[in-house]
Amino acid sequence: MISRDSIMASSEEREGLRRVAEVLSGGGVSLVSRSGDGVELPESVLEVVGRAARELSEGRGVAVLPVGAELTTRQAAEVLGVSRPHVIKIMEDEREIPFTKRGTHRRARLEDVLAYKEKRDAGRLAALDEMAREAQELGLYD
User: How many CB atoms lie within 10 A of CB 53?
Assistant: First the structure.
């Protein structure tokens, strides 16, 4: 959980959320209030709500944060799927994620944490591709 404001869907809501995600993916969706006022939703809003609906329909929690949001080391660890001490090592020793300090507390921008995650994941995929290529060359695959 990134924040206490994360949202979870009940199991009863999940099928409806799958339908919501389907409808949103088609674009051209309008929102109509009870008083009858309507507005067509911009593509950016459709994308956010559609992604949220898909995640919720799979039983995962969702939190909406602005890209410039600052995360604690605990929150960064949750995003990266690693321990808090490892995040501190990445920040201080390896200097891979920029951070600021407020007193003794470290803060990292969400966009920096996500950029690190993307770089890390790309490196992992490249290493796996290389291992698979080498295994094929050695005849370990049929």
Answer: 24
Contact by Cβ (8 Å): 55, 7: no
Structure tokens at 74: 């605990």
pLDDT at residue 78 is higher than 60: yes
Q: What is the pLDDT of residues 122-131, one digit of tens each?
A: 999 999 999 9
Give the total residue count for the chain.
142
Shared domain check, 15 and 59: yes
CA-to-CA separations, 53 to 19, 24, 43, 89, 99, in angstroms, rounded? 9, 9, 15, 35, 32
What CATH code is carried by the domain that includes residue 75?
1.10.1660
Structure tokens at 30: 């309008």
Q: Looking at the whole model, is its pTM more than 0.90? A: no
Domain residue limits at 3: 1-64
